[in-house]
Amino acid sequence: MEIVMCFVIGFLFMAAVYLMLSKSLLRIIIGTGLLSHGAHLLILTMGGLEGSAPPVVSHGVTDYADPLPQALILTAIVISFGVTAFFLVLAYRAYQELGTDNMNLMRGTEDHD
Amino acid sequence: MSFVYFIFIPMLAALVIPFLYKKVRGIHTGWFVLAVPVILFSLYTTFLSKVKNGESFTSSFEWIPSLNISVTSYIDGLSLLFSLLITGIGSLVVLYSIFYLDKTREQLHNFYVYLLLFMTAMLGVVQSDHMISLYFFWELTSISSFLLIGYWYKRDRSRFGALKSMMITVFGGLMMLGGFVLLSIMGDTYSIRELIASAPELGNHEWFVWSLILILLGAFTKSAQFPFYIWLPDAMEAPTPVSAYLHSATMVKAGLYLVARFTPIFASSEWWIWLVTGIGLLTLFWGSFFALKQTDLKGILAFSTVSQLGLIMSLLGAGAISFHTGIEEDSIFKYAAFAAIFHLVNHATFKGSLFMIAGIVDHETGTRDIRKLGGLMSMMPISFTIALIGSFSMAGLPPFNGFLSKEMFLTGMLSIQDFNLFAFDTWGILFPIIAWIASVFTFIYSFYFVFRTFTGKHKPDLLPKQAHEAPIGMLISPAILGSLVVAIFFIPNVIGDVLVKPAVVAIQPYLYDVPEDIHIHIKAWHGPNIELWMTIGIVLLGYLLYATLSKWQPLYNKFPQGFTLNRLYDTMMFLSEVGTNRLTRFYMTGFIRSYLVYMFTGIVLLTISTVFIKEAFDISFATLAPIRFYELIIALVLIAGTLTILLAKSRLTSIIALGAVGYSVALFFVIFNAPDLALTQLVIETVSVALFLLAFYHLPKLNRHENRMKFRLGNALVAIGVGVTVTIVALSAHSQKLVPSISSYYEKTVYKEAGGGNIVNVILVDYRGFDTLFEIAVLAIASLGIIALIQLRLTKKKEVNRIEDK
C-alpha cells in the first residue's frame, strides 16, 4: 500500500505545484492546501501503514498504528490551518484594496525597484 | 624608546583639531597643525646618525596577540628616508596650506583632520614590519586620500576623481592583501624581516609568482603605473596642497616603497625584474608622451609625476638584477637602486615645489588653463624663478639635482643590455632607446610647463583675476624646496651618504651589510662618456621640438578618444553598473511565478542529481501493508478530486473539489487507524472550505468572468518534475529504513507513566507538550493577525488626511 500512497502523494504535489504557478491568487492558496494534504499523507506513509489497531490502549492488542507520526500530523494540520486562514483573509483584503486577484498585476510600483 | 607610538601622534592630534577650529576662530587652524609634522621631523632626525652607521631599530606593541598580529615599527635606512620625506614635506605643505586655504570660507577642520589621518597612515605604511598592519595603514592612505580628493564635495569632478582613485587603489590594495597572505603562508610569518631572512627557500614555492604578481598589483595601482595611472590625473581636483603632498611626494611613492621593501624577497625571480623594469619604463614613456597633450597645469604635473614614478620603478627593477650578478662584478646594477632612491628624493623636492607654484598661479590668476596663461614673468618673478628651477631639474639640466639622477638613470638603462640572463641581451637594447625618447619628451613638457605659463604674451582679458605675486607666506615652502633642488646638485654626497646609502642597504641586503660598503660617489662631471652625449642629444632634440611645438601639438587631438584607458575604465564602470542592473532585471521579474519556478527547478535538479549520483534509488517490497479495496477507492476519489481542481472552469467547483480531497484525506486517516486525525481533519476541512467560499464571494465584480486555467507546458513540466521527485524520494526513503521506530516506548509506558490510554493525545500534551504550546501560539498569532488585517485601515486614513490638507 505504501507504494501506491507514494504515487498518490506525488500526484498531489504535482497538482499543488501546478496550481501555485498559476496567476490567480485563489488558485495559489488552493495549491498550498493540496500541498499540505500531500505533506500530511507523506508523514503518515513514511511512518508505516502496517498497524492494525488505532493507538488507544486496549487489552490484547499489540499491533498499534505508530502514534508518533499521528501526533506530528495533528500539530501540522493545526498550524497549516492557521496559516491558510491568515492567507485567505490576506487574499480577501488584497481583493478589497487592489481590486484584482491576478498575480501578474501585483508587482509593486516602479518606485520600489 | 617606543617610537612605534610616534606613528599615532598625527591621528591623536586630529582628534583635537575640530575643537580648536570651533573655539579658536581668530587663528588659522593650520598653525596648530604645523607643530605636528615639525616635531615628528625633528624626532626622526635623531635616528639619522645611528642609521647612517648601519643600525636599525624595532619597536612594537601587541595588537591581537592570539593571532600573532602586532603593530611593529622598524626603522632602517629606507623607512627613515620615507619618514623624513613624509614629515618634512608634510611641514612645508601645512605651511603652504595656511596661506592657500582661506580660514573663513573653507572647512578647515575637515581638511586638517584628513591630512593628519593621512600622515599617520603613511608613517605606518613605511615603518610597518608586520604585513597585516602594513595593509591596515595602506588602506587608511586610500581612505584619507579619497576624503582629501573629494574635499570640495559639491563639485562633480571632485567626487568623480575621489571615487575613481578609491576604486583603483582599493582594488590594488585587496590584491596586495592576497599576496601578503600567500607570502605569510609560504614563510610562516607575517614579519617582512623574517621573510627576507628566509627568502632563498621561498623562491621554490609554487605560490611564489602569484604572491609576487599580487603584491606588484598593489604597488602599481598605488604608484600610478601603466595601466593604473588613470586615477592620478583625475585626483588633481583635490586642493593643491593635497596634490603636492599626496600625489607627488608621498602617497604615490608608497608603491615604490613596497617594491623597494620586497626587492630582497622577490629579486631572485625574473618575473619581478621584467615586470618592474618593463612596466616602469612603459609608464615613463607613456606619461611623458601624454603630458604634452594636457592644457591644465596640474594635468601636466600629474602626467609628469606618472612618468617620473615609472623612471624610479624601472631603476628599482634594474637594481633587482644585482641579485643575479653578485658583488664581485663591477656592474652598474649595484648602483641602480642608489639612483632610484636618489631620484626619489630629488623628485619629491622639485615636484613638490612645482605643484605649489601651479597652486600659486591658480590662486593669483584664477585659472590653471595654460592656454589662458602667459607673460606672468614680470608680475610673478619669485614664482617664475622657483618654477624655472623645478622645471630644469625635472628636464635633467645642470646645475640642478635632476641632472645627476638623470645621468645615473641613463647609465643604468644602458647597462641593462650587458645583462645576459632572462633574454635581456636580445631585448635590452630597447631599454636605453625608450628611456632616451622619454627623456626628450620630459624635456619638452618641462619647458612647455614653465615657458607657456610665464613667458609669451600676457592675456589679462582671459584671466578671472588681476594677476600679481603671491603673499610671501605662500612662497616660503616652494622656495625652501627650490633651494634644496640647487643645494643637492652642489653637495649631492651629503644626501647620498646620510639618506640614500642606508636605504640602499635595506633594498640590497644581499650585497651590502653596512652603508660604508657602498663605494659610490656622485659626480656632476663624469667625463665625456655616452651618457653625456645622450644628454646633449636630449637637449638639442628637445629644444628643436619645443620650438616647433605649435606645429605638431594638434596631432595629439587626432588620437582616437575611443581607445584611451579612461574610456576603458568608464566602459567597465558602465558595464558593471548597467550590466548588472540589466542582469538583475532579467531574472528579478517581479512575478512570484518566476521565483517559484527557480525554486522548484532548483529543488528538482538538486534532489534528482543527488539521488542519481549517490545511487540512492531503491524499492523494497519487504515491509509493505496489504492493498485493500477501500483504500484504492479512496485514492481514486482523491485523484479525481485533484483532477477536478485542475480542470475546473469555475472557482466554486475547485473549492468544492478541494473539500472533497480534504474529506478523502480524512477517510484515509480513518482507514489507517488514526481517529484523532480524522476528527480534526474533518472539522478543519469544513472551516477551510467555508473560508474559501468567503474569499470567493468577495471577489471584485470586474474580474468575475470565469475561465478555465490555461494549460502551460512550462508550468506542467516543473510540476511533473516536483511530483516525480517527491515520489522517488518517498519510495527510496521508505525502502531504506535504518532504525526501528521509538513508538514502542510510548506504547509500553503510556498508561504506567502518564496515566492515559489515548497514545496520540498523551504524546501531544504530556510527552511532547511543548509542540502543542507553540502550536497554540501559532493559532493565537494567526487569529490576532486576521483581526488586525480586517480592522486596521491605515492607507484609507492617509487618504482622508490628504483630502483634509487640501
UniProtKB/TrEMBL annotation, chain A:
Membrane topology term: Multi-pass membrane protein
Stored InterPro entries: CPA3_antiporter_subunitC (IPR050601), NUOK/Mnh_C1-like (IPR039428)
**What GO cellular component is one of the record's annotations?**
plasma membrane
What Pfam families has UniProt attached to this entry?
Oxidored_q2 (PF00420)
Membrane spanning segments where?
6-21, 28-49, 69-92
Its primary localisation, in coarse terms, equals membrane
Where in or outside the cell it occurs: the entry states:
Cell membrane
Keywords noted in UniProt: Cell membrane, Membrane, Transmembrane, Transmembrane helix
Similarity-based family = Belongs to the CPA3 antiporters (TC 2.A.63) subunit C family.
Q: What NCBIfam families does its record include?
A: PRK08600.1, PRK09094.1, PRK12660.1
Tell me what this protein is called.
Answer: Na(+)/H(+) antiporter subunit C
Q: Which organism is it from?
A: Paenisporosarcina quisquiliarum
TrEMBL record, chain B:
> In which compartments does the protein localize?
Cell membrane; Membrane
- Record-level GO cellular component terms: plasma membrane
Q: What is its main location?
A: membrane
Q: Which organism is it from?
A: Paenisporosarcina quisquiliarum
Q: Where is the MrpA C-terminal/MbhD domain?
A: 637-701
Family affiliation:
Belongs to the CPA3 antiporters (TC 2.A.63) subunit A family.
Source lineage: Bacteria, Bacillati, Bacillota, Bacilli, Bacillales
Pfam families reported in the protein's UniProt record:
MbhD, MbhE, Proton_antipo_M, Proton_antipo_N
* Stretches assigned to the NADH-Ubiquinone oxidoreductase (complex I) chain 5 N-terminal domain: 64-111
* Keyword terms, alphabetized: Antiport, Cell membrane, Hydrogen ion transport, Ion transport, Membrane, Sodium, Sodium transport, Transmembrane, Transmembrane helix, Transport
Q: Which residues form the signal peptide?
A: none
Protein name per its UniProtKB record = Na+/H+ antiporter subunit A
Q: How does it sit in the membrane?
A: Multi-pass membrane protein
For the MrpA C-terminal/MbhE domain, which residue ranges apply?
712-791
Q: Name one GO molecular function term.
A: antiporter activity
Q: Which GO terms describe its biological process?
A: proton transmembrane transport; sodium ion transport
Matches recorded under InterPro entries: CPA3_Na-H_Antiporter_A (IPR050616), MrpA/MnhA1/PhaAB (IPR005663), MrpA_C/MbhD (IPR025383), MrpA_C/MbhE (IPR046806), ND/Mrp_TM (IPR001750), Proton_antipo_N (IPR001516)
Limits of the NADH:quinone oxidoreductase/Mrp antiporter transmembrane domain:
128-424
Q: Which residues cross the membrane?
A: 6-24, 31-51, 71-99, 111-128, 134-153, 165-187, 207-232, 244-265, 271-292, 299-323, 335-361, 373-395, 429-451, 472-491, 532-549, 595-617, 629-648, 655-672, 678-699, 711-733, 773-792
